[in-house]
Amino acid sequence: MTDLQFAATIREETTGGSMDTDLADLPPAGTVRWVASRKAQVVNAIASGLLTLEQACTRYDLSIEEIEAWRELANHYGTSALRTTRLKEYRPAAITTRIERRGRKPRLATNKS
C-alpha cells in the first residue's frame, strides 16, 4: 500500500473521507492522552504530507518508534488497532520487545478497582 493509499484509508476511517485537513484539525501540541482517533489523525497527517515525522515527534514529544508503531498497526489492522485496550490483540511481540529494550514499559490500559 502506498503512502497516499494509506492516507486515504486512514482519512476515510477518521473523517469520513474529508480532504479538508489542516494543522488546526490535529490534536493540540503537547497532547498527552492519546485515544485512537488522535493517533489516527497524526498518522494520517504524516502520510498525507501535512506533517513530517520529525515535526510530529517534536510537536507531540513522541519517539519515532512510537509513531512508526502506530503507523504499522493502523496499516495492518486499521484504526481500531490503535486503541490501548487492544494492544495485546494487535501489537506484534517485536514492537513490545523494542520498547522494553529502550528501558520503557509498554503503556497498557489498566483497570483500577
From TrEMBL:
SUPFAM superfamilies: TrpR-like. It comes from the Bacteria. Pfam families: DUF1153. Signal peptide: none annotated. Gene3D superfamilies: Winged helix-like DNA-binding domain superfamily/Winged helix DNA-binding domain. This is DUF1153 domain-containing protein.
